[in-house]
User: Fold this.
Amino acid sequence: MTEETNQSSTRAWRDRLEALKNIPPVLRIVWDSGPWIVTLGLFFRVLASLIPAAAPVVGKYILDIIQGIVQRHESYAQHASRLWTLVGIEFGIVVAGNLIGRVIDYYDRVLADRYTRYVSVQVMEHASALDLQAYENPVFYDRLERARVQATDRLVMIQSLGRLFQQVVTTAAFSGIILVYSPFLLLILVVCLIPAFLGESHFAFLNYALNFRQTPVKRELDYLRQVGGSKEAAKELKLFGLSGFLTERFNRLSNAILDQNLALSRRRLLAAAPLSILSTAGYYSTYVWVIYETATGRTTFGDFQLLTAAVMNTSNNISQIFSLLSGIADQALFLTDLLAFFQMQPTVVSKPDALPAPRPIREGFEFRNVVFQYPGTERLILDRLNFRLEPGERIALIGQNGQGKTTIVKLMTRLYDPTAGQVLLDGIDLREYSVEDLCREIGVIFQDFMRYEMTARENIAVGRIEYLNDDERIRDAAEKSLADGVIRKLQYGYEQMLGRRFEGGVDLSGGEWQKLALARAYLRESQVLILDEPTAALDAKAEYEVFERFNELTEGKMALFISHRFSTVRMAERIIVLENGRIAEEGSHDRLMAHGGRYAEMFELQASSYR
Assistant:
């Protein structure tokens, strides 16, 4: 074994031992998911763990009575009452064991359901609380994916912990029986089983390390499976003939994973065989000793039966304990990402003494020397940006892609905090306000809005979910966004399931989906309305109608919209042209056209395509 291999093995054991610290916090999660279920499950496991040792003890006395009657010709009548009482007790122990086993299975199923529900909710809630920047980091996605899997797949470890507890109590009972006769027998059993345990543990760790390395590839495989069978990709797959390309790529990646898994399995097989022989030799060494002691008359047939059962069960149980410990240690390694995920904390949070958002807003928003760059990049998206959005004012942001238009929206809604500078509301830094309260005063629809596979009503109500059952508000918002006309054509109206994921669902066109998304913004009844290119799927006429309605409905409110169509941008009272993270020009449409600068150039360029 090379020095590098030795160091790798040492690190492996250190990592596995270090991973055991993951168990207490997970046990806390299990306890929180169902305290009474855990308590009752442990109680019945204690009973179940004593039954395997109790039955052979009773059996020993039965066999000793029979041996006395047959070999020493003792009176059957003298022992009959005790004999059949013991038989009845043994029968009761076996029946109780069967019943308790079923009760344990019941509580295990209940706990599994409760734990799965509880930890899944915890993952969802914690993920929603994290900063938006976390979702733009591929490392976070790998961790989140492993956390989602670990949230439910670790049921195996939880059940293993229950079995371990039961096995330890049972082993202690059988070991106590062996110790009464010969402590040396127990020592032989343990010594011969330790190498097998160490070998299994080593290969289990290697399996974990391999799975960890394979995570990015497996995520790509999931993506390829999704693309290869999704409705969205079906058209291009057929038209561009991409099926063979995707299949070949999937095969190449999956074959590499298969080869790695098989190589490790072969190594494990070759190492496990001699270790298994050693553990079997330990069991038979003790078995031979028991036979010899009985054959020479030093122990009774009842003792032989009891010792044989104790040796066999102790051997099996110690082996299972080692195996369970190894499995639990390896499962604990897989918990690292789940617990690390729960330890991640958002940075964009409300202060303990956060201020409520102003109602009404009196001075508006001000960007004061705002600098912003996304984490892990050097490019400045915004570079000492200064501008104001005052109450009752409608502003349009334009510029090429990547100039910071959407970033401004994210900063106004505190999805991000500026790298430097301040975003003020009524003269107070946004970081002084409650994030939740601030969001209630802003209605935003992004270009990449969500299409919820829910009813039309729910698709609108997500804008302000407490209005879910308020028909008047839901319909009013739909009318404002022109979605009401779309919904009236659906078979079940506002109760129609949308999307194709669930039975009876109806899909909509891109423009129809956008009208529903706009209804969410209107439902919020907020002081600020922001449309970030949400009408890209609409034709020019439909977009004009939406923005004309938008102008009417934002009368007296603060409004900001982003669009690449200058026919709608010109409706704004003030247009801000962004370039290189700064304001290149600003003013009304007529003023900017008269200036003949960047805005006029872009306007004429777009207008020429319609001539």
Notes: The first strand starts at residue 365 and ends at 372. The CA atoms of residues 463 and 520 lie 4 Å apart. The first helix runs from residue 3 to 19. Strands lie at 365-372, 382-389, 394-398, 420-425, 428-429, 442-446, 528-532, 558-562, 574-579, 582-587.
